[in-house]
Amino acid sequence: MITIDTKTARIRFLDTHKFADVDDVPENIKKGDFIVVETEKGEELVLVVGRSIPDRENPSTYKFLRKATKKDVNIFDKHEKEAEKALNLCKKLAENLGLKMNLLKAYIPLNRSKILFYYVSEGRVDFRQLVKELAKKLKMRIEMRQVGVRDGVQMAGAIGVCGNQCCCSLFIDKFDTVNVEMLEEQNLPPTPSKFTGICGRLMCCLAFEIENYSIRKDLPEIDSEVEINGEMYRVKEYDFIKEKIILVSDIGETLSFSFDELDNIGIKRKSPCEGCSMKNGGGTGIESEGA
What we know:
The protein has 291 residues and is of the alpha+beta class. The chain has helices at 70-96, 128-138, 149-156, 167-170, 181-185, 272-275, 277-280, and strands spanning 6-13, 19-26, 34-39, 42-52, 63-67, 102-107, 115-120, 142-146, 225-228, 231-239, 244-249, 254-258, 267-269, 286-288. α1 crosses α2 (128-138).
């Protein structure tokens, strides 16, 4: 008897487009295959997008059932058509009830354990009457799931202002916190409207390179003066892409140093206490060592 090794697979759900890990997936399951897993929603058809390193401390809560068969795929397609009709019905009923909710998608797992309706709403929605009417007409267990606006775009897909498909619908696993302060840290114009995504929130990509700018706190401030080999230079700009600092002298001579070279040439940024007027009577807050 041949023993097939099992590994952890990276999967993508077809309803929410979110990613997760599933343990104990046979090694012969490859990227691009469809498998059936058991989740809190029921039996689901999911896409394998690759392999993943298992987290022994936090094992997956999803159970691998089988590699998807043609029958599984046909059932999924049939349920998608049925869910689309149910979504239109739900939208009509919600409108009649005056509910302020943006219904995105209806989803029926393979084993028809329930039908889920995903929606976006600015506030809390009392959908008890809606659920009663849906259950009466659909003869199924109804579950309403509220999602955030970014989750909504991830589900529906969209083209971003960059002209490419939104990152959330392509590869983003978890949404990082994005705030206005990130604009300043990355030397971007402090105009949030220019960096707002389709979802109405600041674009997720603002968080992609934020770690590259963490060195900023250790750099001399723009327009401050530093001394190198007895000559004074003004800090003109930073280039975080090339990881360089640009200096200019009084006569217009320009020098550039990599961030890694700053310690070698004796330039560092003082702590607030070192540069405060109470300690040394004022100053620029920039210290040159060994010049």
